[in-house]
Amino acid sequence: MKVTSKSSKFSASTVHLEHITTALNCVTPFGGKAFILTYIDADGLSFIGTYNRVVRIQLFLSKELFISYTYENDSSDHTKFCVRINQVLDSVNVANRNIDDIVECTLSHNGEGSPFVLIFEDSYISERVTHETFLANEMDNTGFDLDRDRIRFECMIKGDILHTALKDLKEIGGQDECYLYAELREGGQNIFAIISKSKLGLSKIVLPSAKTILEKLEVFDEDFTTLCYGKPVIALFDFNLFDKLRMSIKISSKVLLRLDAHGVLNVNVLSLTEDILLSSNKSKATSSNSRLQLPKDYPGIVIELSLMEKEITDENSMRDVEIFMETNELGEPIKPVIYKKKIVGSISSAPTNAAISRELGKLNGTANAQDAEIEGEHAIQEEAPFMSNGLPRFF
Amino acid sequence: MSFKATITGPERQALWARTVNVLSSLNKNIMFTVSSTELITWTTDNAETALCKIRFSRQFFDEFIFNPHEIIFGEEGVQIVTDTEGVDHGLYSFQVSGSYLGTITKKTEGDTIQKFTIAINNTTTCSDFLANRLLIYMEMESLICKQHSLQLVPVKYDPIIIDIKYKKKFLEVYGSSQDGEMIDPRLDQILRVTEADVRTALFHEETEKLNQKKDHLTLADEINYICCSQVLLKNFIDHCNPNLTRELKLEINTSRLSLTAFSHAVHGKNNKPLKNALSFTDTISTLDLEQSCLFTTIDEDTMDDDQNVIGHNAQKREHTKNIIFSLADFKKFMNIISSWKNSNESNVDIWFRHRGEPIMFEVRKPDVILELVQVTVADGVAVVENIPPSSSVKCQTMMKGTSPEKARAREQVTKEEMGLLRISPVKTIAPNKNKSKSPLKYGKPISPRRKIKRELFVNDSSQDIPSSDAKKQKPWTSLSTDWKDDASLDKSTDVVRHEGDDINNNFNSTIAEKSATTVEWGVTPQDHQNNESKIDKRSLLRKEKFKYFQDLKTERDALKKKDPSQPEGFGPTQVSKPKGLFD
């Protein structure tokens, strides 16, 4: 029985195979052998992948990339289907190896049930690759969407520096978890760092706070509207998941990170056309880059990643992280900065889990004579406002 | 702040990184010792056959702070040591994992380290989780700052002080003014530097009470010294592959220095060759060396094992020193130096004694002293101490630019000193490499010494005429005698072949114990290990062969015929030996 296919027709052709390869390489950590959702509409082609429902990537290739782009659909304005991304990547890679000639790639799909077809043509050879597709269920996006009203911190940083830091972290190896640490300080010396715990011990990589690199850092208070100085936001992530973002950050020029109160880290990767590393094989990129310029009005690859934060259950390690951040190169504690708070409104929203555990840590810490001198100042200033908040005490 | 040291500059970073890499390749743990004047980093390999120690002086670092009295945590690593001048020095020693340190200091692509700091804060201001941690802080060119906290284990510093021991011996032997001789200024400077080293050293071995007078030197005092440009060694080492050639033999006499990288043939069952013997030799004239001091002996009277004077042999022998050690560790050591700019100008100092005793290499650079001590292979030659004098010993110093004629002229001026008896190697036990004590630490040679066995009945062999003495006393034709006797220095191919054979012989041979009048087969002496019984047979066989040929020469009655069907016989490498009745 032939399934009556909804009448939708999609066809797009491009010569920028390296670009496609680069884009698909960013998606591969999320799929591998699994299926990636492909979403086609009039504006362009998107690939959406998730991993264990805790991390998601949305990669958008705008229609300006393609020489010709046709999309017709009678019933709806988009088409969705799932396809094995590593196979698509393989076929594109094979065609990409042809450096002598320009290869044109045509992607096409004709309605539900029909395969996703790639046709590679150069002067002599025409190759047609058919990938089977299947229908996608409705993607459950709840939990991934960023709550823009409850942002805990926002950070805009240059992509290459962040990538260097992530690569370093990867090379050390052996980590299970990593922390993101963001703190506003007076005088523009903001701190944005990644801390990891491995068998070597605690390692921290502090990204430079120069305005040219860390373009923007905003840490919000409990009310999510006022800036908070001196009090860091520490978020815990699984390192393997965090590492999946690395490929996307590699091609980026700027990265915007936002963490909301629900523990969703949203990473927007903005890659300007000129800055893109078109392929992992740099020598190939340089040779063919000179021949093929990306279209002028093409905005570049747009990637949006969402990652779920891990709950911090171990207050001691949280405290260790804080102390570690507060120690200088000699291991001596830096005098804690007396922070100012621009109190605008009253504290109304419920504190997050992270904030609760931090308070627990601090309250435990005051009992410890050793930490008294480090945390004393914090405790004095913090205890009063927060204890009066009616924080539930778990001990 | 108890300890902090900062390194800046790409060259020094590279040296540090290479040091850490080489040390971590020897052993997974690296030891550090900090004093107010220097930072010592060292390790031995797992079998304790090689020790590599690099000392960075305070000036190597841009910033160096050490306050041992502030240490609260990890105080097991604190030591107070008094040096020879009565000054107290505080030391702090600890151990870290080399692989982790190597991972951290590895150079990342595209980003260079501007400043590298290591620090320990075990003071009162240290928080719990930062106690006993080595804090490594790096400022990168890209303005990223990285900090790592690496677990350290405080230990006590108990060094292997072969370097001090050898330097002391060197000063003793060569430093004493020789009558009527001018000391070369270069040697003088070396002696001065060595003296300063010994004086400022913190750890000394306990002085042994010697019964002998100080101005008499014995073979037990042997110490040789070579100073050569590191380019010579580097050029040779670069061509060697430690996977192919396992060991390195260094030979030196008054005219030549020869470096040979070799590996033995490996035979499987039924003498099937699994791997062929391979060697690669480089010969350098001693005129190209910066300096060399060789300890040589002159036998005036040759003795046999029973101390009967057989003949007078006033002819002095030109001695060739040779010593064998592992190539792989030496190659790694030389690699550390290559990262330094102007490395072509630096010299390698080599000290060694008899075969079997460790060999020491030292390279001095401004603010850095690199040292490698390795065990060496011993053969059957044995030395016994405290023997009544019968021959003279002289020390021979060769200097750069001295022609052999002048050297010989100098040799005429010798001191009549107490010598010692060359004991027949038959009497001693072969090298036993399974000693539980580290040969580096306790300084004992691998081959133990035994007392001379006094026999009631004299063997036929001891009544041989003197002309065959030289050969007889060392039936194991070691390379030195080959070189001297055959003048085969120029015949490189012959030498190679000889080496291949003799190396096999030397290592396979053990010295069998002589029974009173008969030679027994298959009897394993009590002291030997079981796996040497086969070797005993082989060595006994060789001994008998020698006796047999001597008997033919002197036209004596042939010995009893042996059972021709030997279990193993000799391997196919014995091509140079004539096949006799026993083969």
From TrEMBL, chain A:
Q: Which UniProt keywords apply?
A: DNA damage, DNA repair, DNA-binding, Hydrolase, Nuclease, Nucleus
Cellular component, GO annotation? checkpoint clamp complex
Cross-referenced InterPro entries, in alphabetical order? Rad17, Rad1_Rec1_Rad17
Instruction: Cite the Pfam families for this sequence.
Output: Rad1
Principal localization? nucleus
- Location of the protein in the cell: Nucleus
Gene3D superfamilies, A to Z: 3.70.10.10
Annotated GO molecular function terms are: damaged DNA binding; double-stranded DNA binding; hydrolase activity; nuclease activity
**What is the annotated role of this protein in its UniProt record?**
Component of the checkpoint clamp complex involved in the surveillance mechanism that allows the DNA repair pathways to act to restore the integrity of the DNA prior to DNA synthesis or separation of the replicated chromosomes.
Family as reported in the entry's similarity comment: Belongs to the rad1 family.
- The molecule here is called DNA damage checkpoint control protein RAD17
Organism equals: Zygotorulaspora mrakii
Upper lineage is: Eukaryota, Fungi, Dikarya, Ascomycota, Saccharomycotina
From TrEMBL, chain B:
* Chain intervals for the UniProt region annotation (Disordered): 457-484, 555-583
Q: Where is the composition biased (Basic and acidic residues)?
A: 555-565
Q: Which PANTHER family match?
A: CELL CYCLE CHECKPOINT CONTROL PROTEIN (PTHR15237:SF0), DNA REPAIR PROTEIN RAD9 (PTHR15237)
Q: Spell out the protein name for this chain.
A: DNA repair protein rad9
Task: Write down the species.
Answer: Zygotorulaspora mrakii
One of the protein's GO biological processes: mitotic intra-S DNA damage checkpoint signaling
A Gene Ontology term for the protein's cellular component: checkpoint clamp complex
